[in-house]
Amino acid sequence: MGHEVQYILESKRLVWLVAVVFAVVIMFQYFEFPYGDVSSSMFSVRRAQPPLSQTNQTETSSESPKSPGNVTIFDVFNITEPVDTLDKGNSIGIEINIQSNDSTTSPPPSLSASLTPPTTVNSTAISPSIALDNKTSKPEVNAPDLDPNLKKPATSENNPALSVGESPVKELPPVKATHERPIGDIVTIADMHGIFLHNRASVRSMKPEWSLMVDQELLAAKLQIENAPVNSNDWALYPPLYRNVSRFKRSYELMEKTLKVYIYKEGGKPIFHQPQAVLSGIYASEGWFMKHMKESKHFVTNNPKQAHLFYIPFSSRMLEEKLYVTGSGSRDNMVQYLKDYIHLIAGRYDSWNRTGGSDHFLVACHDWATDETRKSMDSCIRALCNSDVGREHFELGKDVSLPETYVRSTQNPLRELGGKPPSQRSILAFFAGQMHGDVRPILLQHWENKDPDMKIFQKLPKSKGNKNYINYMKSSKYCICAKGYEVNSPRVVEAIFHECVPVIISDNFVPPFFEILNWESFAVFVEEKDIPNLKNILLSISNRRYLVMQQRVKKVQQHFLWHVKPVKYDIFHMILHSIWYNRVFRVNPVS
Ligand SMILES: *[C@@H]1O[C@H](CO)[C@@H](O)[C@H](O)[C@H]1NC(C)=O
Ligand SMILES: *[C@@H]1O[C@H](CO)[C@@H](O)[C@H](O)[C@H]1NC(C)=O
Ligand SMILES: *[C@@H]1O[C@H](CO)[C@@H](O)[C@H](O)[C@H]1NC(C)=O
Ligand SMILES: *[C@@H]1O[C@H](CO)[C@@H](O)[C@H](O)[C@H]1NC(C)=O
Ligand SMILES: *[C@@H]1O[C@H](CO)[C@@H](O)[C@H](O)[C@H]1NC(C)=O
Ligand SMILES: *[C@@H]1O[C@H](CO)[C@@H](O)[C@H](O)[C@H]1NC(C)=O
Ligand SMILES: CC(=O)N[C@H]1CO[C@H](CO)[C@@H](O)[C@@H]1O
Predict the structure, then answer these.
(1) Does the Cβ of 239 fall within 6 Å of ligand 2?
(2) CA atoms of 148 and 126, how far apart (whole Å)
(3) What digits encode the pLDDT tens for the residues 534-549?
(4) Which ligand has the minimum distance to the alpha carbon of residue 249?
(5) Residue ID of nearest Cα to ligand 2 atom 10
(6) Best mutation site among 134, 135, 138, 395 for ligand 4, i.e. most ligand atoms within 8 A of its Cβ?
(7) Which domain of life is it from (predicted)?
(8) pTM, full prediction
């Protein structure tokens, strides 16, 4: 009970915080920028709220809000390159959609809350770092028995029947009892922007116990990123995809120039140091990252004193594979294993104690990793697929959302890349998957066999190489990425892989590379409660807007691809970059 009260108090603080950030951003935007990327994304999530009456496109931004009294939705279309399929006369830079005060459209709760500061204003109450969940009690171990057959490694190579995004290994029922959140208490992507900015501005790593050169280098990098030259963009980076392309470009350059990573040698195989074990299936991100990191001559240093980051090279998938006692419902031994490891390296190297672990990182894709690493590695930068900012302890601005990628061919991770051109995408929306979690049954209940435009299925029948599933992805306009047991799903990257616009239905999910990418410019976010309106929401997106998003999906694709040998701006470098970026912005040198 006390816990709940605590929780509600936290929520109020958050709402107020978001209000403050919102107001500041609006003012900033209003006075400084014709089109601020932050505020546009803060608003544009509401695009998903149907029914919206959209005005015709307007040539100028003169219809900016004169007061926050009327909710305005900005939608920035800055098409710097011609989009072949767009009508020629319409290549304007900015499109403004104004949300009418249509009585059927009640303002979304969090938005109206943002606009009306709560009377219980207490700025001292804002906690320095917002981690929404406050699990004071140990997660209750209360797992349904797991089918041992479901625990075989997800090697699609030898199991062609294994369905994309439907790996039986993947979505094991949660071991912990779910922490029920009050209804409606969700963190939307707009809220996430606010939390991120707040944490960025206010949360620092522990001050190092003693100073090293690397601290100065990081500080210098931070200054250079903050003062990144504008208009020196790389042709390979399409500005609308990014929160701030200039900063990203500068930060990426500095990473290439500066970053050194020390990889601990300790740790036995196969849990540590054996990436080959996890190169296919839905946890492949952690395996591929480990492989590329260990093979990198460019980034790896053998001198801990020269390292800006320290990698803890374990696989959360192998941890589960080797240590989880089927049917036990307990993760205690896995948690202990990691704790012992940290104890070992903290005793052997002074690097851990110097910063309390805040320059250490891990990359883990198993659902359980978020919880397993919560205690012993809380100070580390954790790249996690299960990036749940609601139920799990995922700290925006410190932790990194790791893309979950389903790799079918270890030899050729790019097999089946791409999809049909927009004009040949005849299906409005597609989903197929097992009924994991509580969102998918609702999706199916509303849309399975209800509407010919909505291809919403349970698990598809087996087909060789999963052709059936892939063909749907290649020929649909929108691919529905509904959460399973946890917020993450390989569908998000699969959709991008097949050039299908992702529709993310997973409240509290922090999408990959959140620090860098302006997700709302190429993906649609639909709140779980809006599933009944899904079709209207999708139909309310104009064809023009769809074409723009689809083109952006193609442009952002490079950041989500694994290559046998890493290439610039690919997923390996993006993961490393997000870790670097969070390290740089939290640097706290000895004064
Ligand atoms: C809000 O919109 C209404 C109609 O849409 C308009 O009459 C009113 O003047 C607007 N208020 C402000 C402050 O812009
Ligand atoms: C579009 O963005 C480019 C830079 O990204 C800028 O130079 C140009 O003025 C923008 N166009 C519009 C119409 O805002
Ligand atoms: C603000 O909150 C702090 C602690 O929560 C409390 O001590 C203080 O009295 C509050 N101030 C106001 C003005 O509410
Ligand atoms: C989390 O709960 C603990 C114990 O109740 C409390 O001391 C702590 O302040 C809480 N943290 C937040 C952020 O509410
Ligand atoms: C991007 O960041 C640079 C460097 O901090 C800044 O000068 C520029 O105004 C930012 N651009 C936008 C659109 O916020
Ligand atoms: C780091 O701190 C721990 C706990 O204080 C201590 O046991 C350990 O010996 C320290 N490590 C080193 C290398 O001094
Ligand atoms: C180009 C365009 O979308 N025009 C529309 C503007 O709005 C009117 C009424 O809302 C429509 O009838 C036009 O088709």
Answers:
(1) yes
(2) 46
(3) 999 999 999 999 999 9
(4) 5
(5) 78
(6) 134
(7) Eukaryota
(8) 0.67
Phi, psi torsion values for 481, nearest 5 degrees = -110, 90
The tokens describing 146, both together, are 């797991």
Residue 225 Cα to ligand 5 midpoint, Å, equals 10
Name which of 229, 260, 263 is nearest 244 in CA terms: 229
Residues 450-481 pLDDT 10s = 999 999 999 999 888 889 999 999 999 999 99
Q: Is the CB of 367 under 6 A from ligand 4?
A: no
Q: What is the pLDDT of residue 589?
A: 78
**Is the confidence at residue 228, as pLDDT, over 70?**
yes
439-448 contacts: CB < 8 A, separation 24 or more?
A: 439/482, 439/483, 439/505, 439/506, 439/528, 439/531, 440/482, 440/483, 440/484, 442/528, 442/531, 443/480, 443/482, 443/505, 443/531, 443/534, 446/531, 446/532, 446/534, 447/531, 447/534, 447/535
Q: What pLDDT shows up at residue 234?
A: 82
Give the chain's domains with CATH numbers.
Answer: 119-222+255-408+574-584 (no CATH), 422-560 (3.40.50.2000)
Q: Residues for the chain: how many in total?
A: 591
> Exposed (0-12), middle (13-18) or buried (19+): which is 61, by Cβ within 10 Å?
middle
Phi then psi for 526, rounded to 5 degrees? -120, 130
What is the whole-number distance in angstroms between the Cα of residue 539 and the centre of ligand 5?
Answer: 34
Residue 362 near residue 290 (C-beta atoms within 8 A) = no
Give 190-225 pLDDT, tens digit per residue. 899 999 999 998 888 899 999 999 999 999 999 999
Among 351, 261, 265, 221, CA closest to 572? 261
What is 231-272 written as a DSSP string? T---TTS-GGGBS-HHHHHHHHHHHHHH--EEE---S-TTTB
Ordered DSSP codes for 333-371: HHHHHHHHHHHHHHHH-SHHHHHTTTTEEEEE-STTHHH
Pinpoint the alpha helices (H) of 283-437.
284-295, 316-323, 332-348, 351-355, 369-372
Closest-CA residue to 263 (of 351, 145, 366) = 351
Residue 472, token pair as written in the block:
């749907």
Nearest atom in ligand 1 to 100's CA: 5
Cβ of 437 below 6 Å from ligand 2: no
Q: What is the pLDDT of residue 8?
A: 61
78 in contact with ligand 2, CB cutoff 6 A = yes
Q: Compute, in angstroms, the gap from residue 134 CA to the centroid of ligand 4.
A: 6
Which of the listed residues 340, 345, 353, 376 should we mutate to test ligand 6's pocket, taking the one with most ligand atoms within 8 A of CB? Answer: 353
Q: Is the CB of 127 under 6 A from ligand 4?
A: yes
Q: Write the burial class of residue 85 (CB in 10 Å: 0-12 exposed, 13-18 middle, 19+ buried).
A: middle
Question: For ligand 3, atom 5, which residue shows the shortest CA distance?
Answer: 125
